[in-house]
Each structure stands twice: as structure tokens, then as C-alpha cells.
Amino acid sequence: MYGKAFAPEYQGTLTTLSVNSSLTDVLAAGTERLRAAERAGTPGEAARSGLAVAEAHRRLGRVEEADRAWKASYRAAREAGDLAVMAWALWSGGTLARQRGAFPLARRLLRLAADLGERGGDVVVRGYSLAGLAETGRIQGDYEAVGRLHEQLLAEARRRGEARHTVWALEGIAQMHRNTSAYDTAYALFEEAAGIAARADDRRGHAWALRGLADVVSVRDGDTERALALLSEAETTCRAMKLSGALAYNHKMRGNVLYRAGRYAEARALYEQALAEFRAMREPRGEALARLGLAKSLARLGHDRAQIAAELADLARTVERIGLRHAREMVARAQEELEADADTTTAVGTPAGANAAPVTHTGPATEVAR
User: What is the Cα 37 distance to its own chain's centre?
Assistant: First the structure.
């Protein structure tokens, strides 16, 4: 039913690149072809090569380089009069904006990309751009608004037999079910996504599906060791392909699994690692989630409650400013838990935060993929 996964963002002379090519290899090949196209004065090829460069930089967490590259690709495509490649460049820019937490800009660029893709007759970039809009809404927690769009895009991808996009849609729908505690449905969808990705040789999609399965196995079944094994399998792929963002989310999820198992010191170390990784790539959503996990771990380890409360209050303001509805609900629950624990501790006669070390989180929140 599904063919082998392919990467439509690798265009022109770079179509030979695999969806599983390491990002450093994509960047090297794309840069070489871009320079050659610029020397030859062929803006169309420069635009297509520049798109691969932009995407490699983005996925490696190199924000400034990615920003320059997608804009240069768009300008070259406009010079060549190629609407489809202009759309792909806007898709790349919109995806980068979402990664950085600039959601209004992401929506604007992705809508433009979908429109240009339709005008340019490229059904794939139109679909990717609509998918980007759906993912933006999902990340912000607006499930009702984007749920139908996810289902529509899944149906279109299944009809075309496009494995990579089918896997993406299944994972997005699964994540919404997981976040609303429909664990059995989420597990089934993640499992289907993992199977399709494996058969289509979509290693990136497979790694994300394994991460989703690990989350459900941990929260639903309490099976810590199986969850950690799934994450280790996914991490192997992330490292091989140099998937910086996916690796950071993998480490954050490992922290979640360890936290649920009551292994708070280990969880703290993983959250600190993920936090540093998200900051390095300027990924505010991931940073916020890692900060939340770190604060909760420190609370369980007996650190000063006043400082943890201050950290959670700052984090609440941060996710509110970014526009992360689901994350804001998670922070609110953590604040309620902290207050309940403080009331319980005080009731038995032990001052909250006594003999506790300070919170180790330092510095303000910075700006953000999957």
C-alpha cells in the first residue's frame, strides 16, 4: 500500500539523497550544489539546493543559518519564477518559525506556502504546508481546531500511499489522544505509525513513533524498562542521522519515564541535559517542558519550595507568552501539586524546604521540532 519514504524537500540534483541521509551529509551536498548553481547563474537550481541547506541547518538547530538559507532560497525561486519552490521555501521558513516559538509568523508563512503550492500545482508542498498549520495548532494545544485537519491530511496521505506523511499524521493524532488520556487509542496509532515507518524505511518517523510508544508504555502500563528500551532504540537513529531536536526530546522523555518511576535524581540529570540541548538550538517549547520536569524533580528531591514556586511562576508566564495551552495546564498542575505537598508537610510539623538546596535552573527562557 505504501511506497518507500522519500524526502521531497531534497530537490534538483539532490533528489538522490535519502530521507535517512545524515543531516551533515545533506548540508555538505546542498552547500556544494548551491555554490555551483550560484556560479553557473541558475537561480532555479540555487533555490532547490538552498532549500536542502535550510532544512539541514534547521534540523541541526542552527537557527540563524537556517533563517538566512530559506530566505535566500525564496529569493532565488522568485527570480526563477518557480511558484512551487517559492512555496517550499516558505514552508521551510514557517517550520523554522514554529520551532522558534513564533507561532503567528509560522501560521502566516505556512498559509502563504499552501496557497503558492496550490497555484504552482505542487500537491505535496500544499499538503506539507497544511500539515505544518495543523502541527502548529496541535503544539499550542488547540486540538478541536486542528483535529479535523489532521484527519483530512491523514486520509489524503493514505489515498496517495505516501508513507512519510501518513506516519506524520498518525503521530500527530496519537499525540492528541495521549494528551487527553486516551492511552489505548494513542498506543494503537503510534504502533501503526511505527510499522508503516519501518516498512517504508522512514527512520526519522520511526524514531518519533518509538518515543510516543515509550511515553504511553510508561504512563499507562508503568513499564519503565520497556519504555527506556524503546527510547534507546530511537536514540540510536537520532544520533546516526544527527537529529538534534528529536534527540533532545528523546532525552526529555527519558526524564519523564524516570520521574514517573520515582527515580528523581536520574530524571533531574536527563532534564538538565535536555534543557541544555534545547537552549543550544533555541527551542522554547522543549526548553519549557525540560524546565518543568527539572522543577518537579527538584521538588521531589527536597529542594527549596519557595525557589521552585518562583520557577514555576516564571515558567507559567513563559508558556503563556509563547502560547502553549497544554504546557500551561501542565505547569498549573505542577503548581497545585507543590502547594498540596507544602500543606501536607506543614501539617506534620516539618517546615517546607528545610535544609534544602537551591534550584539549579539559571537564566531566563530563550526562544525554540520536530
Answer: 32
Q: Strand, coil or helix: what is 15?
A: coil
Positive/negative CA dihedral, 332, 333, 339, 342: negative
- pLDDT tens digits for 156-182? 999 989 999 999 999 999 999 999 999
Q: How large is the average pLDDT for residues 287-295?
A: 97
Q: How far apart are CA 67 and CA 277, in angstroms?
A: 19
CB 140 within 8 Å of CB 103: yes
One-letter identity of residue 261: A
Q: How confident is the model at residue 356 (pLDDT cuts 50, 70, 90)?
A: very low
CA dist 294 and 264 (Å) reads 9
pTM of the model: 0.87
Cβ atoms 252, 271 nearer than 8 A: yes
Sign of the alpha-carbon dihedral angle for 329, 335, 340, 345 = positive
Nearest to 156 by CA among 176, 129, 119, 174: 129
Above 60 in pLDDT, residue 238?
Answer: yes
Give SS3 for 129. helix
As a whole number of angstroms, the distance between CA 344 and CA 136 comes to 39
On average, the pLDDT of the chain sits at: 91
CB 141 within 8 A of CB 108: no
CA atoms within 13 A on the CB side of 219: 19
Q: Terminal CA-to-CA distance of the chain, rounded, Å?
A: 26
**What residues contact 248, with CB distance under 8 A and at least 6 apart?**
274, 277, 278, 281, 283, 286
Instruction: Name the band, by pLDDT with cuts 50, 70 and 90, for residue 362.
Output: very low
